[in-house]
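Q: Hi! First time doing this. I have a protein sequence and I read that you can turn it into a structure. Is that right? Here it is:
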Amino acid sequence: MNWIAKTLLSAVAVFFISWLLPGVSIEESYFYAILVAIVIAILNSTLKPLLVLLTLPATILSLGLFMWVINAFVILAADWFLDGFTVDNFWWALLFSALLSMINSFLHKTLLHQETRTVNVNSRRGFIASDNSSTTVSGNRIKVENGKKTIIIEKD
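A: Yes, that's right. Below is the predicted 3D structure, encoded as structure tokens:
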């Protein structure tokens, strides 16, 4: 479910950036923006690791700045795979990937934020990540309840 939400938010970002940048165009449908977001996600999980491995010396020598170039090549590869998504040149792809990274980061942090709480029990730390869960601490007992699971942690 989280993957679907991230893809839809990425599609919103792709649609907005293609409207914003004159060197990037997309067919005027939100469905095609979803398709572009899916192709970029697939390329980021398949092609990008291979490119990172092959260009590792350049990435190390540039202190990681070469990753911007790799991201631009991923956008150009998406342009090559999809007919309704066009990027005019490398520089537009570089700007598109930078804006996509920033907007996706902002949207995911604000709309898909998961709460993380730290609980201290007798100088032992535990991290409880929750989405709509409740935590009860009483003495040596911690109870975390979610709609599907209940976790009880007790200290002797």
